[in-house]
Write a structure and sequence with these properties.
This protein is mainly alpha-helical. It has ten helices and five strands. The strands form two sheets. A three-stranded mixed beta sheet has the order 3-4-5. It has a two-stranded antiparallel sheet with strand order 1-2. Helix 2 crosses helix 6, helix 4 packs antiparallel against helix 5 and helix 8 crosses helix 10. It starts with 10 loop residues before the first helix and ends with a helix. The relative contact order is 0.10.
Length: 327
């Protein structure tokens, strides 16, 4: 909230954000589902820091209401990860891996519905949105579109005489959410206490070996860290390519909307650096995951189709785009 580009100046809305933060601290205190990477209040705070970095050179891009909606959605967009009922599942003492996959797949839509129900009287769940219920619809839409759905389905709206650029707000949240993909997203100590699916392990180790993701002069730079024994191994290339592809795919999703709004980003993430730590500093990949990664290497080859829209944009107006990025 201290960034010039992401600042809420209205006292009432500042109070609403504090209420949402307080409610989210309580909400995430004892998560029901713990197989996933961290989605709690710390994740939300890091997303807000990323948004501040994305917007620091654009102090007039978002108005007060848009900043409020974006910050609120940063806190609320993942609450569906903890609601089997909103994912269409019955209440029960234990949820299977298949159940949890369904919860994850539907969590963005579940989050939106939970936000709407919290202000309509259909739910007793307190999310802190009650004092700003006029904005609940926009917070719900932004949360719903933070993943998977086609952002081009969204249209700009308005409230109290101010424009609400929903495609831009949802695009910013989607990208910032993906850019929070470093080692802070996982608690590797949990793996000593429980077993998780091999696919989840793969996801966890990709986060674990990312030291930092930085936005620098229009570039998204990824800094990796690996055990020294992987320095000459293909495994580090496989892991880094998977991370780069995931971030690149999300960047493609939002690139044209951000570009048309004047946000200057290079359309492909790059490796900012690699560090190698002595044996014992970082946890090595377990044997079962090592074998799984090698067997699925073909699944992480970059897709040419998913970047064709960005390439078309560069071909159509390459000089203008490069001027925006590099000036």
């Amino acid at each position: 909230m201290n960034s010039n580009g992401l600042q809420v100046r209205t006292n009432a809305l500042q109070g609403c954000i504090k209420n949402i933060e307080t409610n989210m601290m309580n909400f995430w205190e004892t998560p029901l589902i713990q197989h996933y990477t961290r989605h709690g209040i710390d994740h939300s705070k890091r997303i807000i820091e990323i948004l501040e970095n994305l917007l620091k050179n654009y102090p007039n891009l978002l108005n007060d209401y848009e900043c409020f909606i974006l910050i609120s959605a940063a806190h609320l967009h993942d609450i569906g990860m903890q609601s089997p009922i909103y994912a269409g599942l019955p209440q029960k003492l234990q949820y299977s891996l298949e159940d949890m996959s369904i919860i994850r797949e539907k969590h963005n839509e579940s989050s939106a519905k939970m936000i709407e129900d919290s202000v309509s009287g259909k739910s007793n769940l307190s999310l802190g949105v009650g004092e700003c219920k006029d904005f609940a619809k926009f917070i719900a839409i932004t949360s719903k579109y933070h993943r998977a759905l086609d952002l081009n389905q969204l249209e700009n709206s308005s409230i109290a005489g101010k424009e609400i650029k929903l495609p831009l707000i949802a695009s910013l949240l989607r990208l910032a959410d993906e850019l929070d993909s470093d080692y802070q997203r996982v608690n590797m100590e949990l793996l000593k206490l429980r077993e998780i699916p091999i696919e989840s392990k793969y996801h966890w180790w990709c986060h674990y070996y990312v030291q930092s993701i930085l936005i620098d002069s229009g570039y998204i730079k990824i800094y990796f860290r690996f055990p020294s024994e992987y320095q000459d191994s293909s495994i580090k290339n496989i892991l880094s390519k998977k991370t780069i592809k995931s971030i690149g795919d999300h960047l493609v999703d939002v690139y044209e909307i951000l570009y048309c709004s004047g946000i200057k980003l290079y359309p492909k993430p790059k490796v900012g650096g690699e560090e190698y730590h002595p044996t014992g500093v970082l946890i090595p990949i377990p044997d079962d995951l090592f074998a799984y990664i090698l067997s699925t290497n073909k699944d992480i080859k970059p897709s040419k189709d998913n970047i064709k829209n960005v390439k078309k944009l560069f071909r159509k107006d390459s000089s203008k785009v490069r001027d925006l990025i590099f000036k």
